[in-house]
Amino acid sequence: MSRANAGRGPCTVPFGQFVAREHAAGRLVVQPRMGFGAPAAMRAGLLATRHAAATTVGTLTLDSYTRVGDTAAAVKSLADGVPLNGYPIVAHGSEVTRAVLAGIQGADFPVQVRHGSARPQDIVATLVAAGLDATEGGPVSYCLPYSRTPLREAVGHWVRASSQLAALHDVGAVPHLETFGGCMLGQLCPPSMLVAISVLEAMFFAQQGIRSVSLSYAQQTSAGQDEEAVRALRRLAGELLPGLDWHVVVYAYMGVYPRTPAGACRLLAAAARLAVRSGAARLIVKTVAEAHRIPTIDENVAALELAARVAAGTARPAAEPGRPDPDTGIYQEASALVEAVLELGERLADSLPAAFALGHLDIPYCLHPDNAGRVTSYIDEDGRLQWSEVGALPIRPPSSGVRGRRATAAGLVAALSHVERKFDRSRLDRAGIR
Amino acid sequence: MPHIEVSRTAPKATVVISGTASDSHTWNLVYLQLLIQELGHAVVNLGSCVPDGLLVAECRQRQPDLVVISSVNGHGFNDGLRLAALLSSQPELADTALVIGGKLGTDGLRSVGWQRRLLDAGFDRVFDGGDLAAFLTYLDRFAGRLAS
User: A15-312 is classed in which CATH architecture?
Assistant: First the structure.
């Protein structure tokens, strides 16, 4: 492939191509969620990521004001010296961002913008002007959990933003979009729904002309269940994204994080093993500081290097397919959810909002006005995430024994902190402290 | 989790729970809703990323006894200052108590200076660091005051 970059800043290898190359070479690509308000700190963070003892890609994680489109608040915070929780790319603009990236972003170090916006056109315009072409999100995953924007409106914004990005094909780039659909509130969303939303968002991106995508899946409560889910995700992607460049990216746990450094490291190590065993190509890490504050550069680098060491020491699965998987029906459920949406119309910009309106897609505990809110979930005695109420989802309801459980504050806290307790406690157990 | 005994005769307060415009976190809001409901109060949960205008409009319309702002994205101090000024300047909300809590700064450190500024701006209480026990004690006393 020619690396034409007419007027597009530094010569870079396409994001998807870089990850595919490293995956083929047997290396897991690891990536931080790192963002700082000041350009100098952001540049130092990217440099440290690049020089980490790991196969890395860089991240510009944006701040919350930019995410909700409040550039004025980001500008004012910069002026007043108020610390931001990420890099305000629109407030800084493309020239400052080019300077941040200069000499760092390159053939062996692609950089992705992570933002969380339901209305990402300004962000996409700025990142393109800054010579970048990789970002993430999705019409559902950055709307329902992260905004009050009506879903149909968010879909319209994402049609335009994806098309903006797809236009980079005209100048010889291969823009890349990652679905955030494998996260959906971070915890307590059963894996089949995460898989379905991730696949549907990838298909949505493809319908806007994007040819290189990644499909996310966020680590949940059970290693075995997660492995089955990532395999289901890869199988569905293979079936439904013909002709596209795609890979799977695993997110280290996105819920309530262990408070002890040892617990946090063990959870990250489990995520790295999950990524390798399930055939994912990339992992987004979390740090030991996650439960407490925005992590430092050093904490990010330590997390990247730990994940890389664990990944290098984890055996890949034997040749697939044909490998007998434990099958608890995640693929079947996810497939049924995707089918139910496609039956409402091939054009996902229409059928995704329609599916939510009908409750054919429904996210547990999501407070967004466009979410039906008729489904609930729980963690079973084996630590697996299960449906307790399926509402109008086109899947088999659970046995009567688990239905109608009423959510309580104590029950919710227990479920939300299930992973934290499991990983923090094992340290105390080992130390003999109970 | 701290357990606070609440008088069974406590009347139902109307409580509005809201995230800030820049904060996408939901679990803190879902949890607070269940917790406050279980104590017998009526809860209106506005969810995450609530624009300032919507929060003000909902509060003016509902005239709740208490508004609970929860923020965990690190912008809570800054966003809280703005919301306190907005809400405390509404004549309809003269009798409404206003509290904020969560992880209010980016550095994980409690800042006495910022807490003071939030109180001066119009909050009745600030629960930095997500001090739940203090919040529950506050809520119990608050409900008791409504009863008397």
Answer: Alpha-Beta Barrel (3.20)
